[in-house]
Fold this protein.
Amino acid sequence: MSQAFKISGVIKDFPEFKLGPLDLELEAGTVLGYVGPNGSGKTTTMHCMVGLLKADGGKVEIFGRDNDPNSIDWKFDIGYVGDKHVFYENWNGAKNLKFLSEFYPNWSDKYVTELVERFQVPLNKRAKDLSSGNRVKLSLIGALAHSPKLLILDEPTAGLDPVVRTELLDVLFEVVESGERAIFYSTHILSDISRIADVLAFLDNGKLKLKVAKDDLTDNWRKITFKLNSDEVELTNVVNTERQGRDYRVISSNYNVTIDQLKQLNAENILETRMSVDEIAVEILKKK
Amino acid sequence: MLKQLLINDLKYYWFVFMMMSLPLIIFTILGLTDTYIDLNMEFINKYFWSLVIGLGSYFLIYGMHVNKYKEKHDRVLAYLPVPLKNRAIYKFAFGIFPIVSIVFFLEFLRTILPDSLNTTITRIDAQLSLLFIFLGIMSTSYDYMKCPTKKIKHSIRSASIVIILSLLSAGFIILVGSETIPPIVKGRDEIYFYLWGIVIAVVASVIYYRRESFV
């Protein structure tokens, strides 16, 4: 399987924030959910990838090609929906799409018509008069119409109502189903991620904390409660421990190993509960 | 691609270009029909057309640049498949295009209008040439702000040097002009300003090329 992108040692230094060194990669045909709190560096990573920001160090490759601002081949392979939806504000949606179409040989007007009907975007309205939801939809149509192999989406569902969010996620599902296309999706709305992501990468304060397959996460992470007489207990794979007298509540990143340990320590009333992706994400990001 | 971008801007700012050509068309018609507007004030009579065409064009062009910054057109181009060097050339071309077009039109007017209007055309020309420099400075300063953050002191210093040099040279040309430097064309000192304007436009596109952020 080819690599959709590879970020190697990327650094971006701002006066009050530093991203990286960051290493991250994504296989073609998979969806990577990029999760992190506000200000963790998600948008900066994407800006460095698409050429809106020049990284201070490191390298970004898109389908094996450097994201050199003077070469354009790699740009044909990406579709980008950014944190801001930028248009020629006095033009209507149709004119904005027409403008974009002039730069992409693969542009499909047929697909645009299909998406416009599906999303119900009023193409005759000037961009500045569009609602925030319609601006997102228009951006997404612009990003999808040239059938990019890598879709980079920066919190695309932020500010959208649940109906539009579902529609948008349905379209993304279809995009991924074709097999060869990859999506790099940043968000802090974790319910979206749990629906579409195959792999999750957690970013905090400019550093990558964890990259893991979503299924591994939901299969291995558990909330475990138990009773134990011992005062000092050291368990491996435990990311968070709460104690009230003899009652313990721990979060384990590998519950099988933790439960084996607890049995050896003669713990009583061991009870494990599955966790949602949201709960796991919170635990990962809380962990220092 | 460059042509595509420029045509696109002509389409987007058609109203601005139309507004810019309107006073020029009126000036041409009045000139050709030998109609003289007397506003009963010597200063206004003398500088009426240079103010209307010069300042009018300046505010319209300035408004167009401000609109471009406001709508973040640089950002749109940054993620489109357009090489950075082409974007920098486009920046230069878009910067000089409106004023150069007016200048060429004014030169054409010199050939068709009565000689008595030559001084008026020269005044318009001179005013436009100065405004050209101001526009270049504005654009350069904006791009400097987006230059490498680590080299901000260096950037501010260089920007200040460009601005001070252009202002000093403009002042120098105004004060001594053709007496010390023979004009390229007799009585056409404004050419120096245009040359400076083009130098600043080149600087502006080089600075754009060095920008690290198009966010």
About this structure: Chain A touches chain B at residues 13-15, 47, 50-54, 56, 69-72, 75-76, 78, 80, 82, 84, 86-91, 99-100, 102-104 (CB under 8 Å).
